[in-house]
Specification:
Pfam family, one: Sugar_tr
Organism: Cucumis melo var. makuwa
Number of domains: 3
Membrane topology: Multi-pass membrane protein
Strand order of the largest sheet: 1-2
Oligomer: single chain
Subcellular location: Membrane
InterPro entries: MFS_dom, MFS_ERD6/Tret1-like, MFS_sugar_transport-like, MFS_trans_sf, MFS_Trehalose_Transporter, Sugar/inositol_transpt, Sugar_transporter_CS
Number of strands: 2
Largest sheet: 2 strands, antiparallel
Helix content: over 70%
Strand content: under 5%
């Protein structure tokens, strides 16, 4: 069915009668949303919600943990940043896990780590318990960040795939925002136990959802593939054409050579690698998680009520993320990403400038922070993940390594921002000399990263959109 060209990564179909997409979906009829697809997606995105709670946890719990366990700033910085170390490890092993034990099994495996991590945090007596729990949650988070969007993309028809995959990012946003909201009213131990609830929901729901039909076909379980696909599409739906195309796609994958890390440095993958890794890395070098992990204390430093600022930011984040989901298919990925990147660059500059002017009482520092996050989640926060998946070539692992690179770039911002938060307020006389100016260095570096990210958007193809 396919002709191998001189370039080993390119295959062209000889027969066009089926009007195939590269992903191997059927065009034999309009797609319909079934209860099975909706329920399966909801169970899967429970993991996305866990992802969000892990990110949002450190901000509302900071004062309670530092007071009760007598942690220093350095110790709490380790607690905040060690999440990304665990996530980096999880992202590295996520691809192999998803291939060996299946998408559904991998999600359950990740949730066990998250559940143990939340229990370690909730019943911590020392900083070591906190760090172990945080790293366990991070490991599960790293696995979830890969397997959930892959699973959703594999179970949904192509006509509905864009809408359903955006639910992953929407639930991450809800997890962050609701954790900020709940954290304003409960203590840090109760908040950790609440964070374990979506883990339990997914673990209970996983036995009742089908495995990915594509993974089943890849592992020569054709009968199970047909049963799973029929269950997802509905009993009355004819899935024979889609089964055939999945089989053809699976055979095509088997013909491709086994990829390696060195393949990423071949010329044919250069643009995909630069765009995929660049989008993720520069987004994180902008310091978004460094701010998000300590947003409550930053509002307090800015002369704003920490609880009120966090609640306002949570509401804005939910509204703007929902708007971004709607605009993504209307305006396209690239224009929305460019607008959001430009606005985020300006917002990051405004946040730094507002702290500079705080002592002069010329600007309310809380407002630019609200604007920064609002513009960020409109496109940058979730759109980069979506485009990372869409720009990969068939036999390239650039998307996987873009996920891995997402996490270590967080560590610098999280540690430095916590140490440099006082210098952001320009009160350097109140802190030890070795930390003086770190906050401003972070601000300059973040601005450079945001600017480079904007430039990278212009290098993306105008035709870089999701095939329907």
């Amino acid at each position: 069915m396919y002709q191998h060209s001189d370039d080993k990564a390119e295959f062209s179909p000889l027969i066009q009668s089926h009007n195939h997409e590269t992903h191997g979906d059927s065009d034999t009829g309009p797609a319909s949303t079934t209860f099975a697809i909706v329920f399966t997606t909801l169970v899967a995105v429970s993991g996305s919600y866990v992802f969000g709670t892990a990110i949002g946890y450190s901000s509302p719990s900071q004062s309670g943990i530092m007071t009760e366990l007598a942690l220093t700033v350095s110790e709490y910085s380790v607690f905040g940043s060690i999440l990304t170390i665990g996530a980096m490890i999880g992202a590295i092993v996520s691809g192999k896990l998803a291939d060996y034990i299946g998408r559904r099994g991998t999600m359950g495996f990740a949730e066990i780590f998250c559940l143990l991590g939340w229990f370690f945090i909730a019943f911590s007596k020392t900083a070591w318990w906190l760090d172990i729990g945080r790293m366990l949650v991070g490991f599960g988070m790293g696995v979830i960040s890969f397997v959930v969007p892959v699973f959703i993309a594999e179970i949904t028809p192509k006509e509905l795939r864009g809408a359903f995959t955006t639910v992953h990012q929407l639930m991450i946003c809800f997890g962050i925002s609701l954790t900020w909201l709940i954290g304003a009213f409960v203590n840090w131990r109760a908040l950790a136990l609440i964070g374990s609830v979506p883990c339990l929901i997914q673990l209970v729901g996983l036995p009742f959802i089908p495995e990915s039909p594509r993974w089943l076909a890849k592992n020569d379980r054709q009968f199970d593939c047909e049963v799973a696909l029929q269950r997802l599409r509905g009993a009355s739906k004819d899935v024979s054409a889609e089964i055939l195309e999945i089989q053809e796609y699976t055979e095509l994958l088997k013909q491709l050579p086994e990829p390696s890390v060195l393949d990423l440095f071949e010329r044919q993958y250069a643009r995909s690698l630069i765009a995929g890794v660049g989008l993720m890395a520069l987004q994180q070098f902008g310091g978004v998680n460094g701010i998000g992990f300590y947003v409550k204390s930053l509002f307090t430093t800015a002369g704003f009520s920490g609880n009120i600022g966090t609640i306002a930011l949570a509401i804005i984040q939910i509204l703007m993320t929902s708007l971004g989901v709607v605009l993504m298919d209307i305006s396209g990925r690239r224009p929305l990403l460019m607008i959001s990147a430009s606005g985020t660059c300006l917002g990051c500059f405004s946040v730094a400038l507002s702290f500079l002017l705080k002592d002069l009482q010329l600007w309310l520092a809380g407002s630019p922070m609200l604007a920064f996050f609002g513009v960020l989640v409109l496109g940058m926060q979730g759109n980069t993940r979506t485009m990372k998946c869409q720009i990969r070539v068939l036999n390239s692992k650039s998307g996987c390594y873009a996920t891995v690179i997402h996490y270590p770039t967080n560590i610098r911002g999280i540690i430095l921002l916590r140490h440099g938060s006082n210098s952001l307020g320009h009160n350097v006389r109140d802190i030890s000399h070795k930390y003086e100016g770190i906050g401003w260095q972070l601000g300059y570096f973040s601005e450079l990263a945001r600017f480079l990210d904007c430039l990278l958007q212009f290098q993306l193809s105008f035709k870089l959109e999701l095939n329907r």
